[in-house]
Design goal:
Layout lengths: L12 H14 L5 E11 L3 E11 L2 E7 L10 E4 L4 E4 L1 E6 L8 H10 L2 E6 L4 H13 L6 E4 L3 E3 L16 E3 L3 H13 L5 E3 L5 H13 L4 E3 L7 H6 L4 E3 L12 H14 L5 H18 L3 H13 L3 E3 L2 H4 L1 H4 L5 H4 L7 H15 L5 H19 L19 H13 L3 H7 L2 H6 L17 E4 L13 E6 L2 E3 L1 H8 L6
Parallel strand pairs: 1-4, 1-5, 6-7, 7-8, 9-10, 11-12, 13-14
Antiparallel strand pairs: 1-2, 2-3, 5-15, 15-16, 16-17
Amino acid sequence: MFRFSALHAPKWLFPCLFLILASCQQQPQEVTLVIDHVNTIDAVQGLAQDMTVVIRGNEIVAYGKSGTVEIPSWAKVVDGQGKYLIPGLWDAHVHLTFDADISPAMYRLFLANGITSVRDTGGLIHLVAPMKAEAEANPTHTPRVKMAGPLIDGPPRVYDGSTPFRPEISVGVNDEAGARAMVDYLDSMGVDLIKAYEMLSPELFRAVVDQASKHGLPVTGHIPLSMDVISASSTGLASMEHMRNVEMSCVDHPADWLERRRHMLAAGANQAGGVLRSSLHQAQRYDALQVQDSMNTQAVLQALKENNTWQCPTLTIVAARENQVYARPEWRENYQHLPPKVKDAWTENSTRMAEQQTDPNALSYAEWGYNMVNKMNQAEIGIMAGTDCPIFFLTPGFSLHEELRLLVKAGLTPAEALESATLRPAQYFGMEDQLGTIGTGKLADLVLLNENPLEDISHTEDIDCVIRDGYLHDRNALNAMLRPADFH
């Protein structure tokens, strides 16, 4: 066997070895990626022009004006001239396991649309936990996942698996001890938040929020039909989804409306949860829209602000029948990226729905939703962008860009809409030191856009490349993620 001996090595070899070793010491094992001469946008610094971003591994290690930042000679350099770099986007309301046929396609559809993080807001823990584990094991090719596990609902449960439209994504609790035990169990399973649902009694709701606080878990959810918004927010509710049931607390004499709901809940205790919930919504929602009281609305807004109860409005759902995204041929083109079985079903069903006459009540509800989002934003209540995909023909990934458009339609500026999909969700999970803005020491979850989203929020769809956990997915790679052949 040959053995190298320094005693027999030629003298000329030593300078070469020195240079090779020095070079190895200078070049880290991690790939170094540079986006040079790029315009950056985030919720703190706004627009910064002609900047250089240096990424090593999964971290931004240098950030500054182009020409002032040293670029390693071995780095891969992306020319960002004329382009716009934003933090990776969040969809803060998704259901990864709502439809088993769609679940395998969701991660690639999210990443192809610049969504590097998602907040799953309801799914059975034995189904969602493996998807989160998969994401953690493959951080460069999947979005970051924050999960709530199942909805915690009272008897009777709404999402009990009784119909295809109400798959089983919830668990029921019957008493305070059971509610606390369920929170303990979900915490042991690694959830990042808890979701409380509409059929909980006030006692069970408060037990869920209290027990979650002991584990440091934020609680989101729908306002229980047995409660008013102010009392639910005052328990320590971290956020609300869809602004659900807010309209019922903004009426004249809201206590009277609440009393009637409680009577209906008691009388329908033996009904299926989904049926009972729908009957209460039908009995009060649209009538409530006709008698909104400005003083009580202001009281609700003030309570949400003081209690720091943030909102994930999901206008894609609240205004679905007014917006009618499913009626647009260009939207239905997005279905080609879904598994073939889903594509065919969605094409048929959404076309049929587009032919139906829209209920005037749905239009009134959409208008209320736009106005309420504007009022909440003006009241400086935190807003996070989320979509509820894949419900209601909302193609994962694509639906987040539609939500941003609707938030701007409701009154947010493009900058505020971007904040709702970048910094706000990071703050919600206490990750603002790592995510949501662009700077040295931040994790490298970034999206490079071809046009300025501050001028037109729809430019978030014009993506040049996506960087997830420091790994660059160029346009060709993103296109490959969208090919129907990739989904089986």
